[in-house]
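Re: beginner question about structure tokens

> Can someone show what the tokenized structure looks like for a real chain? I only ever see the sequence side.

Sure, here's an example I had lying around. Input first:
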Amino acid sequence: MEHIQRDGGPEFKDHWQRYAHAKIKSIRTARPYKKNEQAFIERFNGILRKECLGYTKYKKKDIQKLQGRVNVFLNHYHNTRPHLSLNMKTPKQFAMSHLT
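And the corresponding structure tokens:
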């Protein structure tokens, strides 16, 4: 991954930041109170909560189980779940139709 945008929330401190700087070329922090800068990720976070994780508060011991669920969900989200904004195509179908 080359670039990532984050909000300025406290969860993006210390361990995550060290890991991200080692793996990603650039990290951009969204400006406070600029909702449009975070619109896509906020939408995705809502879908992830609604369709995969639910609204439970999880504990550190749940991370492996949750990572497995998220991996399955991401495969579904990108490869089999149609998106209204992509004219009912999956992201994979949409991307493939624009490669030629």
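Each token stands for a local structural state, so reading them left to right follows the chain. Strands lie at 3-6, 26-29.
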